[in-house]
Structures
1.
Amino acid sequence: MTDAASRRSFPRWLDIVAVLGVAAALGFALLTPAERTQGTPARMLYLHVPSIWLAYVAFVVTLAGSVAYLATRRMHWDHLAVSSAEIGVVFTGIAIVDGMIWAKPIWGVYWTWDARLTLTAVMFFVYLGYLALRRTIPDPPARAGRAAILGIVGAFQIPLVHFSVMWWRTLHQPPTLLRPDDMQIDGPLLAALWIGVAAFTVLYVALMRHRMELARIELVSYGEAIATVGPVAGDAVAAPEVTAGRSGL
Amino acid sequence: MSGPVRFWPQASAIARRDLDRERRSSEVVWITIPFGAVALLLIPLAIGTNEKLLRDIGPGMFWVVVLLFGVLTSVRRTSVETPAQRDAVALLGIDPAAEFTGKAMALTVMLIGFELLVGAAAVALYDIDLTGWPWLLLVIPLVAVGLAELGTLSGSIATSVNAGPALIPFLVAPLAIPLLLGATQGIEAIHQGEGIVSWMLLMAIVVLALAVAGVLTARPLQETR
């Protein structure tokens, strides 16, 4: 298979696997026995945890892409950072919204001023700021350099969000998967959760492939647009010729 | 001459330049501080003038005003600098890290002034309980340094960007949350008879991390201008 052909077929297979994986994860989420105390609303766990997991992964990759861009100045790393940040923002938004839907029947309110919730919202806005910054700078290398720095500074939020439930007494439960000590979740529920996490991870890779390709096309079109700019005002004006030893004064 | 030897004189020169500029324009004194005081006046009109309520929320409102209006100071510092001035500083061979440090130093002085004057207004308007006030001698400079570093860093990132004045507050506000938490929760902890040290530590770590980030990223940022 040629490189071009493999490049075309790989995302297609990955897309299919991602869609099937997410469908299977949702199926397991619905078929797994209901949680004893919370009942059906607890099924939100299978969407909520994979979403925030994906957001963490995405923002860590943004950090890695930002550091790599500053070290190498290769635009490929900037494409990695921005693609991952966009996906991370979308999935942080999904985690916040599905968390609110879950909170209403369990806590009685959509939102409470809990450390985890508030810091997750803050993380969402930090990366929204990252994307907003990128939209204001048209020149790709300047945009990449400045965004990379914000991508590094913004990453301080990730451990703050994750460990907030351990550092502060909060209403939000401690981490289900990424906790340093033992996991307290029943076998079938844990299996469904891991399937969800795996499926969302594959979905992330598939989305990244597409978004990075889009970023590459954007860069190429920007270069072509710059190269094909027509005559601009002032083009016809030549600089005055200065001859050595002669002065008009 | 070696780098470290030139670093502090350069940073001091930049700080003096910014402070001279403020002395001539008096923008912080005549615009930002009164604007912050007006905000403190508006809040009771919106939520009610119950004295106990105002005494309870006063410290929090003060720190929110410091965060939101203090950012205006860094926005203004960034927007008055022209590309030609930035080019001149770069061509003079000023170390970008020294430039960052000098700007942050000047902004810290301005923000401390802002905090003291708006703080006096907050105490008068909200009848704030000043129990444990000696800790403010540590909290006020820590918040000022942290906000100054964040403002300077965000200002450098948003330099020459059309939407810069709108973008800087959006970048600074979420990242300043640990400072706001440290300042409000630290003072609250004193009132509750609990320890303040962990909150001071949080603020100190944030200040240190921002200083490192600002110094290390100064040169890459200068190259993207």
Note: Residues 3-223 of chain B form one domain.
2.
Amino acid sequence: MLVYTLKRLALAVAVTLVVTALSFGLLYLSGDPASAIGGEAATDADIANIRKIYGFDRPIHVQYLTWVGKALRWDFGMSYYFRLPVSQIMAARIPATLILGSSAIVFALVFSIPLGVIAAIRPNSWVDRTALFLSVMGQAMPSFWLGLMLIVVLSVWLPLLPPSGTEGWEYFVMPTIVLGYYAMPAIMRLTRAGMMEVLASDYIRTARAKGLLPGSILFKHALRNAVIPVVSVSAVQFGFMLGGSIVVETVFAIQGMGYLAWESIKRSDFPTVQAVILVFALIYIVLTLLADLLNGWLDPRIRVT
Amino acid sequence: MEIRPIPPVEEILGPSPGRLLRRRIFGHKGLMIGGIILAVIILFALLAPLLSPHDPYVQSLTTRLSKPFWHGEGKWNHPFGTDHVGRDYLSRLLYGAQVSLLIGFCVALISGVIGTALGVVAGYFGGRVDMVITFIITLRLSIPFVLVAVAVVGIVGGSLKVVIIVLGLLLWNRYAVVMRSATQQIRNQDYIPAAEAVGCSTTRILLSEVMPNIVNNLVVVATLEMANAILLEAALSFLGLGVQPPTPSWGLMVSEGKDFLFFEPWLITIPGVALFVLVLAINLLGDGIRDVTAPENR
Amino acid sequence: MRKKFSWLCLIALFAFILMAPAAHAGKANDTLNILHEIELSSVDNYFNTDRWGVVLCHLLWDSLLYRDLKTGEYKPNLATSWKYVDGKTLEFDLRQGVKFHNGDEFDADDVVYTLNWISDPKNGIKSQNISNWIERCEKLGKYKVRLKTKTNFPAAPEYIAAVLAIYPHKYYAKVGPDGMGLKPVGTGPYKGVEVVPGKSITLAKNENYFAASPKGKPSIGKLHIRFISEVNTQIAELMSGRADWIWRVPQDQAEKMAKMPKITVEASDTMRVFFLHFDAANKKGRNSPVNKLKVRQAIGHAVDKATIQKTLVKGASQLLHSACYPSQFGCTDDVVKYEYDPAKAKKLLEEAGYPNGFEIEFYGWRNRPEMEAIMGYLNGVGIKAKIQFMTYAATREKIRVGEVDMAMNNWGSFSIHDASAFTGNFFGGTTDDNARDPEVIKWLEIADTSIDPEVRKKNYKLALQRIAEQAYCIPLWSSNMNYAYTKDLNFSAQPDEIPRFFNASWK
């Protein structure tokens, strides 16, 4: 188990480094940081001056390594747009994204797992078909459309919920639905498939033969085993949600990391973008690492591969 | 003495595998519905030049934002109304089908080739090769795809080609993962070492022994990724990074229509519903193919 | 029993939800909820370049002078009187008895410190040209200062009144731009209560605002400004009553919203001039069709500006023919006008050597529908334009280095009512000048630096006439601006795009 853990950890670190290096390179390709800082009235001389002050004239790998060194101490420099340290800006934005992401995944799980279980108990029935249809439905619409439609219905026609902001729990209801809906089909299908497989297995038949009530069979034996792959898929879905949060946060004006990343990209605010990418990558990598470790612990066969 | 006639071959042996497959396909409601809808949309796309009442690029500022025929003021020369610069919406919808389907197919093709190659190689060879490829897959999943899209669009400018290339180069991960595990399962079957023993080259084994057995997985993933690509194009348009006007695409039309959401809702609803139906149909088709070709059913 | 309990819970939940909105209802708690789409980089007046920075400049701070909206005169604000001593020197007498929001007394030290600090290039304020004309400021007495400019600068009072906020010298020396950005302190009609960077700004009425101010006394108690980038979400906020004031509402939505009972929609002209900007001078040697006069003239005739302005821009916008905004000093309409004539356009193209038209990249970052309309007209004479819609920063850079043949550019002149802020900016040999016409540059230099108004007008006219005749740019229209706000509000919009909340009140 230890070897497995170390191997996975080494992989995680390697991925982090490569991701940040790639994003570093891509960002520099997409715009000139010196003119972004210089702003409107900057002359060529101003920009050349800025290039020297900030060190943009050094070779790119030197710049990258300097950045990595600082990043290890959680120092990401100053934002080019706001006159504030990037770590401070991120600290203010992370909570909103984490709340949004967590409630979205919980929403997805709360609705998909029961649907998957029901579908598995009565496969190919109209219940099964409806459950599948419901879960696929929300995924077939562009998320910004779904978001705007919810705003129209629930904020304008019926003034039930606020269209934007993050002041209280009611502000997160619509964004959670829009973001969470995306993960539903995958989780539902997985639960259904897993449950069906488990329900057909030998030890369930044995339990039934022993005379245990169907309810307890369902929950104590079948669900516990079927849920294992769902855990790792959920971790992965959470990672995806961080990407999807850009659209949702923009539509609902939630000041989170996704929105920060997008606006910073538009403003060529490189230090912020690089920091956000690192954090996103870290969250995703940590989650998959935990999921791998969990799988490895639960199912010893996986450790061998 | 009566001689009983010899029953036909099918009665003795049972229906042929092909027959069985066909029966299952036609019996599966989801697959049929999805397939038919998709076929209809493809037909509309192909016949767009014939069916469109107007040129989808011609603008006419004085007739902008006219209403579709189901509103009181709608006129029949523009059955679905006109958009914000006066282009006929029905024509744009039909030509837009071409663009959206093109994006879906091309992206599915490009990402399919990349992902399948990576997945099969990883699954077949295992060991170091597998480790490297798994590393690459994790890498790809950790990069937020918006960043790549913006960088590319910032340098090259947004267009249909750029959208297809960017999506094609980013959406291969599911192919790789699925094909890898499918190949791993096949790897241990008897006929693989048998082929090796006979002296088949690796390429030959991969192409003629492995691929045919996992091609059903490929088709399922391809259909789902096609739907995904079409939706992502809409998201890119929302951010201003996708296909550029005046090229019609359903994703762009939905994005342009969002600014008229409150008072001219048909501008977003019509392409939105079209997208929805297309994506739904593709999903049903994909699910249906998976159900019908799953090994348990063989 | 359980059923009853769960029903009760549901009812309670619903009641709670229904009571939850209207937490910030405008008139009821004397708070105006304002929405703006772009996050401000800093509240410090000299470290942001967004329009909202100019708005805050007039809310939180005062300047020495204030431009009267009706007469155009420069009224005394923090200065009680002023005069030109010679072409390069101005003297100001300062007002006594004014206090900053933190209690500090206002006097000459604050003016001297502020003006010298912002004109020092090493302090790196974001828009150098609002202060780089200042040579230095000297203290002549506790309430008297002298301002020296580098060259004759007749537009000085305009710049002073428009954007030069006076800072408290002790406070600013201590906290610098970072501190000022988070806890702004000034003399203005509103004072800062809370700044959440990138998210919201809350201001409260300054009860002790000096009575003699030309801005008047503020009425509304609190201003709560939030940043929401998605226009539809802003509109939803206004329609659901959670927001009270939005602007930059797209034309089509504004027209429909005007019919809604609880909302007032106001259309106002702005000084933001839209124009087709050409690389006439072939800056980078890329050789493009627009280097030729006849091609530029052809484009001028190919586009039906009047129809686009009538059907898309609408509102209170004006059709423009000259490279300036009508209210700017020196601006004149007496120039060559390019009427819509596609046949003439095609002929000119033929004469220029392009009988079958050509392909061109058309850059822009705002008002995409209008760009598409223009593109359609160009198509009609054979010019295949491909729209490149990028960010302002990226495009402006490209235009300056000469990589853009044609762009739909726009410029608000920082709301400065002087032709030097527009014509001078784009045709006076600056980095933005893509025409590089030595005669025009000469005329503009004379006009920009002479203090004789007649000389200035004459030279601006010569320059503008040549610019139009050479079609270095094709002026299109001034932008219309739609404001939408709650019916409970008394507010009037101004063409300088500076909403004056200190003049607004509840009905």
Note: Chain B has a mean pLDDT of 83.
